[in-house]
């Protein structure tokens, strides 16, 4: 846990799940920069000279998009913001941080990236996501709620804000400019264009020239040569890794999935678009599938992919959650996973380790965890330490498929 100093007071913040040895903070310079700007602009708005314009009035409908660990929503809790995120862990972190600072969780309204946005937004604050497609989809979905007087401010590290980032703001919302860099962070200021913003002076409808609908989700067909997944139609909502084609790691995994039959409980852990679990369902009509991911868009993609391709009546559930927290101990026969090794911009094996430990608890005796990963990540060492065994089932110069058995 660390203490964030904001213009409105200090906050104790932590990531979720909280790791005692984790040195990563629950905020960064981009969050600090945005909060400092808001405080200064709020003071300006309250000043007498602000009557002619300028400043940010936080008394209206405030929406925070892409908050990483709840630092922004917690700091702005007195203004009752709406937090929109694609991350279940972000929602959990925000709730925990609110309570940690003595703030009722009702102070923040929680929406996922798949929920319908608020009808009106007076102040829109956007933490720029790593995925350009997710930003594109979010801006399209939020645009109808913006008015000509809506204040739009984005924030991110300098390395996260590119020409393509600014182009999306410009094309979808309106004229855009950036601030000077401070501590390797930058702000984005966008003024909703009159022809693309909600007309609040009339009936609240949008003009015919308003921004077009989001192009997401998109679909593609899996190429031949990847086992049971060959020919499947895959659906991807915005923000899903490698959304326009099958990534090479998943392709290698699909070629080397275990051939199983019977009434097994199979978990697609960190399911993404669900192509791995769907391939299992196609190959084994008796399998019971659980698709789980911390991304709301990933689980929505997995369900769309499954429904499009599977008509065998496989029992199935789709879970947005924290790894295998909702899977009963000793209930799984097979867990399949391609663990991420990044948390936002940080490289870390914390997520993979939690997936492995959760798998060991969820598997029955004799149950198996199959993992694909880059060779250099050294997952075999972690699996041997945890399971007492690990076999290499397939390998090429870049990837390995590993199997660990619950004894």
Description:
- The chain is an alpha/beta fold and 407 residues long.
- The protein is built from 10 helices and 20 strands.
- Helix 4 (132-142) runs parallel beside helix 5 and helix 7 (275-283) packs parallel to helix 8 (296-309).
Would you summarize the structure shown here?
The protein is α/β, with parallel strands linked by helices and 407 residues long.
Key structural traits:
407 residues; alpha/beta; seven-stranded mixed sheet; 20 strands
- Structural class assignment: alpha/beta
* Shape designation: globular
Q: How many helices in DSSP terms?
A: 10
Q: What share of the residues does DSSP label as strand, in percent?
A: 25-35%
Give the topology, please:
Elements (H helix, E strand, L loop, with lengths): L1 E5 L2 E5 L15 H18 L15 E4 L5 H5 L6 E4 L2 H13 L8 E4 L8 E7 L4 H11 L3 E12 L5 H10 L3 E3 L6 E6 L27 E4 L11 E4 L11 H8 L9 E5 L5 H9 L4 E6 L2 H14 L6 E5 L11 E6 L4 E2 L2 E2 L2 H13 E12 L4 H9 L3 E5 L3 E7 L2
Parallel strand pairs: 3-4, 3-6, 4-5, 6-7, 12-13, 12-15, 13-14, 15-18
Antiparallel strand pairs: 1-2, 7-9, 8-9, 10-11, 16-17, 18-20, 19-20
Helix pairs in contact: 4-5, 7-8, 9-10
């Amino acid at each position: 846990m660390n203490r964030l100093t904001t213009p409105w007071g200090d906050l104790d913040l932590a990531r979720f799940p909280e790791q005692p040895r984790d040195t990563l903070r629950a905020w960064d310079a981009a969050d600090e920069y945005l909060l400092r700007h808001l405080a200064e602009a709020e003071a300006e708005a309250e000043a007498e000279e602000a009557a002619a314009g300028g400043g940010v009035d936080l008394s209206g409908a405030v929406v925070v998009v892409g908050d990483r660990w709840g630092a922004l929503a917690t700091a702005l809790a007195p203004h009752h913001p709406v937090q929109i995120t694609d991350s279940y862990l972000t929602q959990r972190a925000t709730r925990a941080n609110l309570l940690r600072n003595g703030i009722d969780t009702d102070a923040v309204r929680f929406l996922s990236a798949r929920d319908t946005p608020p009808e009106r937004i007076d102040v829109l604050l956007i933490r720029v996501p790593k995925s350009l497609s997710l930003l594109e989809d979010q801006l399209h979905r939020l645009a109808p709620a913006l008015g000509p007087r809506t204040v739009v401010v984005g924030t991110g590290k300098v390395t996260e804000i590119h020409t393509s980032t600014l182009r999306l703001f410009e094309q979808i919302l309106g004229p855009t400019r950036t601030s000077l860099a401070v501590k390797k962070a930058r702000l984005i200021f966008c003024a909703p264009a009159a022809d693309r913003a909600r007309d609040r002076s009339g009936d609240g409808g949008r003009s015919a020239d308003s921004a077009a609908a989001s192009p997401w989700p998109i679909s593609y067909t899996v190429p031949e040569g990847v086992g049971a997944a060959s020919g499947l139609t895959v659906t991807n909502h915005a923000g899903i890794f490698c959304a326009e084609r099958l990534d090479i790691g998943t392709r290698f995994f699909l070629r080397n999935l275990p051939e199983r039959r019977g009434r097994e409980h199979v978990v697609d852990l960190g399911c993404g678009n669900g192509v791995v679990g769907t391939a299992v369902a196609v190959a084994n009509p008796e399998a019971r599938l659980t698709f789980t991911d911390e991304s709301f868009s990933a689980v929505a993609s997995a369900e769309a992919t499954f429904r499009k391709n599977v008509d065998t009546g496989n029992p199935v559930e789709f879970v947005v959650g924290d790894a295998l927290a909702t899977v009963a101990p000793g209930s799984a026969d097979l867990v399949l996973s391609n663990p991420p090794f990044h948390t936002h911009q940080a490289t870390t094996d914390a997520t993979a380790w939690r997936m492995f430990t959760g798998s060991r608890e969820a598997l029955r005796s004799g149950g198996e965890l199959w993992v694909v990963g880059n060779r250099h990540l050294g997952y075999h060492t972690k699996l041997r330490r945890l399971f007492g065994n690990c076999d290499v089932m397939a390998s090429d110069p870049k990837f390995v498929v590993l199997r660990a058995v619950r004894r």
